[in-house]
Amino acid sequence: MSKISVREMEKRRREVDYAMSINDMNNTEPSQKEIELFESYIDGEVSLKQVRTTLKKRSM
Q1: By three-state DSSP, how is residue 13 classified?
Q2: Which positions ≥6 away from 53 have C-beta within 8 Å?
Q3: Helix (H, G, I), strand (E, B) or coil at 34
Q4: Of the N and C termini of the chain, which has fewer Cβ atoms inside 10 Å?
Q5: 3-state DSSP call for residue 2?
Q6: Would you call 48 helix, strand, or coil by DSSP?
C-alpha cells in the first residue's frame, strides 16, 4: 500500500463520493469491481489514470 497523506485520502474520498452521487442521479448502480477499484484509489494503491483506464476498458 502506498503511503498518502490524510489530506490526499480525504480529497480522494470526496472525488469518489461525487462520482457515486452522479451515478445515483443517473440511477446507475456501481458493480462490486468498481467499488473495489474506488476503494483502491482512496487508499492510494492505484492512480486516477489507472482508474480511468480500467473503467474505459470495461465500458467497451
Answers
A1: helix
A2: none
A3: helix
A4: C
A5: coil
A6: helix
Q: Which residue has the cell 482512496?
A: 42
The whole-angstrom separation of Cα 51 and Cα 12 is 12
Residue-wise pLDDT tens digits, 24-37 = 898 888 889 999 99
CA 28/CA 51 separation, integer angstroms? 18
pTM above 0.85, yes or no: no
Q: Can you read off the three cell numbers belonging to residue 59? A: 465500458
**Overall residue count recorded for the chain in this entry:** 60
CA angle 15, 27, 50 (to 5 degrees): 35
